Amino acid sequence: MRLNPFNTDKIRVRSGGGGGGMRRAGGVGCGTLVIALIGAVVFGLDPMQTIGVVEGVQQSAPSQPRADVSEQELCTSGPYATEACNALTSLNETWAPEFQRAGIEFQDPLLTFYSGGVTTEGCGSASSAAGPFYCPADSGIYIDTNFYDVMARQLGASGDFARYYVMAHEYGHHIQNLTGLAAQVRSVQQQNPRQANQLQVRMELQADCYAGVWAGKNRNLIEPGDMQEGLRAASAIGDDTLQRNSTGRVNPESFTHGTSAQRVEALRLGLESADDTQCDRYFDFN
């Protein structure tokens, strides 16, 4: 995808630091795209213990944000970081006008690069096992860009558009936070715990749809093969596929992100329609 160069006047980026520094640095509760992937593939954890909400989690050796690194330095610290900043600029420029037309106050998210571990400003601390995630308490997208290498090696989900999909999905959670949907869903989940997983699946599928809408609205920048990269990544991180690959069993009742087929369908819906109202189909509280 031929995104325009990032504009530091239109994005907020910081370093989360980390024990090993930024390693080839180029994201309801804290909704994540692929927590299960890192836990199951890299650390051999039960994906159902690590997937989904990451709120108030405390893990060892968290890193502290560095205030002495400029956004320009961060965004040029590596190819993945540059990609992420390019994507964030495009996402802000695409979604801000949509919020203005809808009469909803818009705030751009804070993108944090980290390695090893990171401390958020409201969702506790997390290690790199968390992968990319979104924290609504500080409107933050947290990215350990080393995850992209794991995604390519372990799942065959490579390519720049696959990585843009990760960013755009976490941005989708930001949209849900700004519109108030995330808080509404959390309230319903608390009132009806048995529906919590089903509602979380809808959250993740809608975030996939929003990711597709962003790409669809920038269709002139899409290159041959991009859509296939994104759809392949969406398929690779479906609950059924992750469970089958990690445990050999599939337990639909524990799904929190949707099946491979559902995730592909949601991303495709956004890509082909380029209409965010199409993503409303995942929720109807009326």
**SSE sequence, one letter per element:** EHHHHEEEEEHHHHHHH
Mean pLDDT: 78
Strand content: 5-15%
Count of the separate structural domains: 1
Broad shape? globular
Q: List the total number of helices.
A: 11
Task: Return the structural class.
Answer: alpha/beta
Approximate helicity band:
40-55%
Strands of the biggest beta sheet: in what spatial order? 1-2-6-5
Largest sheet: 4 strands, mixed
How many β-strand stretches?
6
Q: Using only CA atoms, what is the Rg?
A: 17 Å
Q: How far apart, in Å, are the first and last alpha carbons?
A: 38 Å
Low-confidence stretches: 19-66
Concise account of the structure shown:
The protein is of the alpha/beta class and 286 residues long. Helix content is 48%, strand content 7%.
Provide an overview of this structure:
- With 286 residues, the protein is an alpha/beta fold.
- The chain has one domain.
- Helices cover 48% and strands 7% of the residues.
- It has eleven helices and six strands.
- The chain has helices at 35-42, 47-50, 71-75, 79-102, 146-155, 160-179, 181-191, 196-217, 226-236, 239-247, 260-273, and strands spanning 12-15, 110-113, 117-119, 125-127, 133-135, 140-143.
- Strand 5 and strand 6 (140-143) form a beta hairpin.
- The model is unreliable at 19-66 (pLDDT under 50).
Task: Give the SSE layout.
Layout: E1 12-15, H1 35-42, H2 47-50, H3 71-75, H4 79-102, E2 110-113, E3 117-119, E4 125-127, E5 133-135, E6 140-143, H5 146-155, H6 160-179, H7 181-191, H8 196-217, H9 226-236, H10 239-247, H11 260-273
Parallel strand pairs: 1-2, 2-6
Antiparallel strand pairs: 3-4, 5-6
